[in-house]
Specification:
This protein is α/β, with parallel strands linked by helices. It has a single domain, classed as 3-Layer(bba) Sandwich (D-tyrosyl-trna(Tyr) Deacylase, Chain: A). It contains 2 helices and 8 strands; from the N terminus they run βββαβββαββ.
Length: 144
């Protein structure tokens, strides 16, 4: 599993000219699911991500978590995080999980996050999505 976390002041995702997910202060999360990923991996990374302390406290130290700042989550499925570009110029995605199981794990991951964070918005799995965000910092972290 690969997760790209961007701390944002706001973010949204649009499909077919309709906003399907929108948040204020929080994390925009791009989630790639690999062919060998499991529910246990979802559980480990959801706990790690929701507990990250990357918001500034009163001393301007990154010491606060999503819960501490009433942050929100927008989680977007992105299989292209598993692009293999070692040979040639056209990436292959053989290391990404097949769509049916990946969608199940994507929803499982989102549901786990929703147990910890009150506002969890989602993209539409497999759709052509347009993502808009204002990166705060910029502050971007990758978890695997």
């Amino acid at each position: 599993m690969k997760i790209v976390i961007q701390r944002v002041t706001h973010a949204s995702v649009t499909v077919d000219n309709q906003v399907c997910g929108k948040i204020g202060n929080g994390f925009l999360v791009l989630l790639g699911i690999g062919k060998d990923d499991t529910e246990a991996e979802c559980e480990r990374l959801a706990k790690k991500m929701t507990g990250l302390r990357i918001f500034s406290d009163e001393n301007d130290k990154t010491n606060l978590s999503l819960k501490d700042v009433n942050g929100e989550l927008l989680i977007i499925s992105q299989f292209t995080l598993y692009a293999d570009c070692k040979k040639g110029f056209r990436p292959n995605f053989l290391n990404a999980m097949e769509p049916v199981e990946a969608e199940r794990l994507y929803n499982y991951f989102c549901d786990l996050c929703a147990k910890e964070i009150p506002v969890v918005e989602r993209g539409i799995f497999g759709a052509d999505m347009k993502v808009d965000l204002l990166n705060d910092g910029p502050f971007t972290i990758i978890l695997e």
